[in-house]
UniProtKB/TrEMBL annotation:
The active site is at 245. The keyword Oxidoreductase applies. Residues 14-465 form the Aldehyde dehydrogenase domain. This is Aldehyde dehydrogenase. It comes from the Bacteria. Residues 1-32 are annotated as: Disordered.
Amino acid sequence: MTTTSDPTEQAGQTRPTFDSLSPVTGDVVGTHPVHSAEDVEGAVLAAREQAAWWGALGFDERATHLTTWKGVLTRRLAQLADVVHCETGKPHADAMLEAALAIDHLAWAAGKAEKHLGRRRVSSGLLMANQAATVEYRPLGVIGVIGPWNYPVFTPMGSIAYALAAGNAVVFKPSEHTPGVGEWLARTFLEAVGRPVLSVVTGLGETGAALCRAGVDKVAFTGSTGTGKRVMAACAETLTPVIVEAGGKDAVIVDHDADLDAAAEAALWGACSNAGQTCIGVERVYVHERVYDAFLDKLVALAKEVRADDTAGTHLGPITMPSQLDVIRRHIDDALARGGRALVGGADAVGERFVQPTVLVDVPEDSLAVREETFGPTVTVAKVATIEEAIERTNATAYGLGSTVFSKGRGMQIAERIRSGMTAVNGVITFAAVPALPFGGVGDSGFGRIHGPDGLREFTYAKAIARQRFKPALALTTFKRTEKADQQLQQIVTLLHGRGTTLPKLNKRVKRAGRPRG
């Protein structure tokens, strides 16, 4: 990414621009405007008008529009994958998979919004039996989405699709490394719907900060933990709520009864897919000592078959953000300097643009490669005497995003004890592809959820209504309340919440106590 200038005049001055570059060749992929704080404020103001129209539509109408957009995305799937490939360098097949999963999530959000957000009746309780109680979830208004570069379609669409389905307008600030993807999404939405309910602002970090301060009703951010803290600080100035999906240091636990072939293949794919640039990617593996050697043999054999280069059919693309190369190199060097061994890859694995798969063993638990997010195609493998030890090591991190367990007999029991927002059992990263499951972490991995019913409700506020159906037997909310009413209230509360009363008898006695007499 480089900064240039644009001859387009803005108030007598040239608008600054920046270039997105191919991480494979370094060539310019596209030139994009650097939107100023004033531009962002204007975009949010325009989005406010669109939100009024979009939010007033019924769920069916919004679903129809989103389904039309889904059709456009599907028919142009190869085109979208090409844009992703050009800006991230990832293989076309991986870009296609990412976009296809995003489309599936869009379909789910559009079809399920009414079920999970529409008005529904709730119990009013015995004390308030004369009230009809309902709750529904209404759109917040305008949502700001700040997206990452590693999955520039799938990840932001986890916020965009669900926010739109919930009735909000969206202003999307894509990563400066993948602005073309964001512009492509907004352009196709406008073509499908005819109104810019989804709009885009492009630029560097200052543009994202401006979006946080521009008066949006919520910000959904995906990126590093450090940047997430800065986003929160900027949003705090205007008391704007945030969803933060930050980094991870995800682990795989391999039990003694695991399918080792499946576990090895999953661990390698989880560690190296997208060149390891995956927040929910595998970075640590803990293997029961009874199967450690057999698992390691399988993992090493598979890893030696995977390559990262710019030839056709390559498994891995380049490291998209050049500065990450230094982080990966530092983590590998630290592991080796502290007694670790590289069974595949190693010190020479980090090139000018590409990093080869690296499998590290005998790495101390307090090393950089175990404690900090590497975000490259590397993985540490450690032997454990018991699964209890594996769980303790897995949880000994400030992060808590995703995790994986391979076990035939006790996968669920192990998964339940892992401190992470998501866990896959006998698979890897499978939870991300299930639209009905919430996606998000704990600790330094952030808070809030996208995807599923939880993801829909993140972009709404709950609207509660209590409507009186008939006059109450006990008039409690009045200054004319009598002493007799107070005594009856005390009797009812005692019956409801006192000890030693069964529910069937309680209901009959409460009804008698609250029944008008005479």
